[in-house]
Amino acid sequence: MLPAKKEHPKEKDKLHPRNKHRERYDFKQLISSCADLKPFVALNKYGDESIDFFNPQAVKALNKALLIHFYGIQYWDIPDGYLCPPIPGRADYIHHIADVLGKLNGGKIPKGPTIKVLDIGVGANCIYPIIGTKEYGWSFVGSEIDSIAADSANSIINKNEGLSEVIDIRLQKNTKEIFNGIININEYFDLTLCNPPFHASLAEAKSGTLRKLKNLKQKKVSTPVLNFGGQTTELWCDGGESQFVSNMIQESEKFTHQCLWFSTLISKESNLKHVYFELRKVKATEVKTIEMGQGNKISRIVAWTFLTKQEQKDWNKRK
Fold first, then answer.
1. Which of 219, 207, 224, 233 is nearest to 83 (CA)?
2. What is the pLDDT of residue 318?
3. The pTM is what?
4. CA atoms within a 13 Å half-sphere pointing along the CA-CB vector of 63
């Protein structure tokens, strides 16, 4: 006998109104777009079609299907062990940060390749540039310190028609720098994005992966699935999220007039106080904090600029 049927809301109303993933996954449609997903779809204990989110290959197949079905991608793959991000949450970042640009444009989101975006740590998956180019036609530079991840992102770009014209992957040779060595002289960006490394050590990263798996399985898990959560550089760095973002803020001061808005995800609410402290130190003229929700998880975007209101308007007029 099946457990009592769970009542699911018709829409995931915590997601941005323009997010294409507010409705529950229609697996029949997704399978029709990507047959690779079919072997992983089965009825769960409530009698609903779903996948085993504990299985990295199933999650990868779901991501591939979502990108094909909703964004018209022909090819997408990542090497084993690299981060397989949740597409709805990544799309939310793009839509919320688009609204920041829209406020400078009378509420209308600026579209087209003249809007240039820098994605710090683009990853093997190249998700933010894909969604940003497909939703708004923006052009992207993606930076990466991992050559395998950079090669994977380039493979995705080269195997999808039209992406190579609007997405450029650059390898960061100095792992201690973020914008230096990536932003060229006389190069200007309307936005920068970043999903910073979350953990402060490898041990902490493994512990976090175990917690995630325990929540998915609803039972104790003693061994992390190595290809579930991402590579070292994707998951942790010395000092964790707080230190990485602090470094980014300090370095952003050198590019005050080359970027309209800088931004980053902040997963840990407890890090906000330190982030705001660093932003006051560099004298950011405006700071925005945007909350995002997916399921029970709350994260937020912190965005900042060094330009005055008039300078922001002048920047927008030049576009």
1. 233
2. 84
3. 0.88
4. 24
